[in-house]
């Protein structure tokens, strides 16, 4: 999850709706124009507000997206609106409703109330919708005035009542007008898919209760059934990205093989927090990133937090008793753009009805997040967290180790070295130049704790060997490009690798040799088993051997195998805590009163004389350059999309 990346000023932002949509003119008398609209990965962002920085923003919020929806509905005779999942978790409002205030049966969740106000036709579930448990999810869905479908959600023997009642697909029967004004009845089949690894990522909530089945297998079984039941069109709501071209069993990002299934007419994708059509997916076989098609079928991916509205326009011709897609067009509509010299420029106002639907929860969330729980004597920011040891990451690692040192007493793991793995959650990238943690010296409020630890994970400990520990660090080092020694100004970061996969493991010391190839690719794919970037790995001054054993404090997502890190998984689990990482961090701060985490020299880059790399970060980082002691770094001009570029001498 991150700050929505904004499009550069251009035709998609500046052209008129009619210029963007040649189908918006009246179609021929015997044709029907149907407009499909999609939001995805809203993550409880109703208001255009950043609760972490406690300020309004123009680049997020369903209230803004709703204005675009209204305009595009007014322009077309026949429209449908869908959401692609991950709407119940993702910001402090979601946490406040789930953990602080609670949600009683019959009470409307503010996100659902906002979606009702916009008027969705159907939705599907994403992986983060399970983060608060199945009972909470089902209670929240009770208030939805639209069907929620999930074809590959498989209830287990311990599933709560109501889970099996969620439909795998639905048929929406709608009157539509053709170019001559005649009305026809159209049956639109809507099927939804979630990422199969949900049972791994949310094991504490889903073990024995539910799991995710294979996306492609579910589609192959159900799409013909939908057609047999009279679906004129089939729209796939795939909370899944555009990944491998071929079908891999239970793959997370399956939109390419999904689009190849006969009977599916359009793909509404998400999960990756990227945009399509556009350059994010250029060069992938079977994908036309400019036209917005996958295997020749129209598709969209609308960013996240309401940053874009995805639109697919279809022209339908009669095909015997049914209909077929004769022409199609995929487009994106951003709610804001970033213009050089002007910053973020909003393109849509907020919809009052959507704001009203969540107004009470918004006010209560602000009061909740502004409560102080302690103080910090040092600034806690993530501007340099991907290039050097960082206090905002260190405080999370310290809290996890503090908690588990007590919890492991009297267990078989008590005498082993206790390490702690933590990663920066907000460090720019696709999130944009404002997407960083920044807690100044002074009071630490609940919103700051939530900023330091974004997700509702729980504390876990895994028991690993020295070989697995080294593999874990090799996986983390996949975030960096391979660097040619002696060459100037090479780009440091792999743009496909998210910052939350850069685990720093406190309690050991090591170096990262960027001249060597990575062992793993983004997502944990093994690309070179013989590669090794980690050098000088030691514990208390002694080299770490392959047969040594350690306990590593981490979170439930990573411990269960999220990200594909060596040494993780159910078989490695040493301790499953009942407490959330964020709550442990809050208690750590409250107990200490004032914290001053020191960014120990846990890791550094291997020296490469005569070599420089370029690193993009927030312009706000320039105010903190004097805090750096062990990094040869200087400004190197402007980076893309509002970032600043820094040069690092290795």
β-strand percent reads 25-35%
Overall pLDDT level: 92
Structural class: alpha/beta
Report Rg.
Answer: 25 Å
For the record, give the distance between the C-alpha atoms at the N and C termini, rounded to a whole number.
Answer: 31 Å
Helix content: 10-25%
Low-pLDDT parts are: 1-20
Blueprint (SSEs and pairs):
Layout: E1 7-8, H1 11-14, H2 17-20, E2 31-39, E3 49-50, E4 55-56, H3 62-75, E5 79-83, H4 92-101, H5 110-118, E6 122-124, H6 134-141, E7 148-149, E8 153-155, E9 169-177, E10 183-193, H7 198-201, H8 203-206, E11 210-212, H9 215-228, E12 233-238, H10 255-259, E13 266-269, E14 275-276, E15 287-288, E16 293-294, E17 297-302, E18 308-319, E19 322-334, E20 336-339, E21 343-346, H11 352-357, H12 359-369, E22 372-376, E23 380-381, H13 391-407, E24 418-422, E25 438-439, E26 442-445, H14 446-452, E27 458-465, H15 466-476, E28 490-491, E29 504-506, E30 509-512, E31 534-539, E32 542-543, E33 549-555, H16 556-559, E34 573-580, H17 581-592, E35 594-595, E36 603-605, E37 612-617, E38 633-638, E39 644-649
Parallel strand pairs: 1-20, 2-5, 5-6, 6-7, 10-12, 12-13, 13-17, 22-35, 24-33, 28-37, 30-36
Antiparallel strand pairs: 2-18, 3-4, 8-11, 9-10, 14-17, 15-16, 16-17, 18-19, 20-21, 22-26, 23-25, 24-29, 27-33, 27-34, 30-31, 31-32, 37-39, 38-39
Helix pairs in contact: 4-12, 13-17
Domain 5'-Nucleotidase C-terminal: 391-566
Protein name: Bifunctional 2',3'-cyclic-nucleotide 2'-phosphodiesterase/3'-nucleotidase
Organism: Rhodovulum visakhapatnamense
């Amino acid at each position: 999850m991150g700050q929505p990346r904004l499009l550069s000023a251009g035709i998609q932002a500046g052209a008129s709706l009619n210029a963007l949509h040649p189908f918006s003119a009246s179609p021929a008398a015997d044709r029907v124009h149907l407009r499909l609209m999609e939001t995805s990965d809203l993550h409880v962002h109703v208001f255009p507000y950043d609760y972490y920085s406690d300020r309004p923003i123009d680049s997020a919020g369903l209230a803004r997206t709703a204005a675009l929806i209204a305009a595009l509905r007014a322009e077309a005779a026949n429209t449908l609106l869908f959401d692609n999942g991950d709407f119940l978790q993702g910001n402090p409002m979601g946490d406040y409703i789930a953990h602080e205030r609670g949600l009683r049966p019959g009470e409307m969740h503010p996100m659902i109330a906002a979606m009702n106000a916009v008027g969705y036709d159907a939705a599907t579930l994403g992986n983060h919708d399970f983060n608060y448990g199945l009972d909470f999810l089902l209670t929240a869905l009770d208030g939805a005035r639209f069907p929620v479908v999930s074809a590959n959600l498989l209830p287990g023997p311990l599933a709560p009542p109501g889970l099996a009642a969620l439909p795998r697909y639905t048929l929406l029967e709608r009157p539509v007008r053709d170019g001559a004004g005649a009305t026809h009845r159209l049956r639109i089949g809507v099927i939804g898919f979630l990422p199969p690894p949900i049972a791994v990522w949310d094991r504490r909530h889903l073990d024995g209760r539910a799991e995710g089945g294979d996306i492609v297998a579910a589609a192959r079984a159900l799409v013909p059934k939908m057609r047999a039941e009279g679906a004129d069109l089939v729209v796939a709501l795939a909370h899944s990205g555009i990944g491998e071209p071929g079908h891999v069993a239970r793959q997370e990002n399956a939109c390419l093989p999904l689009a190849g299934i006969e009977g599916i007419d359009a793909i509404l994708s998400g999960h990756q927090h990227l945009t399509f059509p556009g350059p994010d997916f250029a060069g992938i076989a079977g994908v036309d990133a400019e036209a917005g098609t996958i295997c020749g079928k129209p598709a969209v991916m609308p960013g996240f937090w309401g940053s874009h509205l995805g639109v697919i326009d279809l022209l339908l011709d009669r095909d015997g008793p049914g209909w077929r897609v004769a022409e199609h067009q995929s487009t994106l509509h951003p709610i804001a753009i970033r213009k050089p010299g002007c910053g973020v420029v909003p393109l849509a106002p907020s919809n009052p009805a959507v704001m009203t639907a969540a107004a009470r929860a918004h006010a209560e969330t602000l009061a909740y997040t502004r409560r102080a729980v302690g103080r910090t004597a040092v600034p806690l920011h993530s501007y340099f967290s991907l290039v050097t040891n960082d206090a905002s990451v260190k405080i999370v690692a310290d809290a996890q180790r503090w908690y588990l040192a007590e919890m492991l007493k009297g267990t078989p793991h008590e005498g082993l070295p206790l390490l702690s793995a933590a990663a920066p959650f907000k460090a720019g990238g696709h999130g944009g130049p404002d997407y960083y943690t920044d807690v100044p010296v002074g009071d630490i409020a609940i919103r700051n704790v939530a900023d330091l630890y974004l997700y509702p994970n729980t504390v876990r400990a895994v028991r690993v060997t020295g070989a697995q520990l080294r593999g874990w660090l090799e996986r983390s080092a996949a975030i960096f490009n391979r660097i040619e020694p002696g060459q100037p100004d090479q780009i440091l970061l792999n743009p496909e690798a998210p910052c939350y996969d850069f685990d720093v493991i406190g309690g050991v010391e090591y170096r990262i040799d960027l001249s060597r190839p990575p062992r793993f690719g983004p997502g944990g794919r093994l690309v070179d088993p013989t590669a090794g970037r980690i050098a000088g790995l030691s514990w208390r001054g002694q080299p770490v051997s392959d047969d040594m054993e350690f306990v590593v404090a981490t979170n439930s997502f990573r411990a269960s195998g999220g990200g594909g890190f060596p040494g993780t998984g159910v078989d490695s689990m040493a301790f499953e805590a009942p407490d959330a990482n964020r709550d442990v961090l809050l208690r750590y701060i409250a107990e200490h009163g004032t914290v001053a985490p020191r960014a120990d020299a846990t890791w550094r880059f291997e020296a490469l004389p005569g070599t420089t790399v370029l690193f993009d970060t927030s312009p706000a980082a320039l105010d903190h350059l004097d805090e750096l002691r062990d990094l040869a770094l200087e400004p190197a001009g402007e980076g893309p999309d509002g970032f600043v570029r820094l040069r690092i001498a290795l």
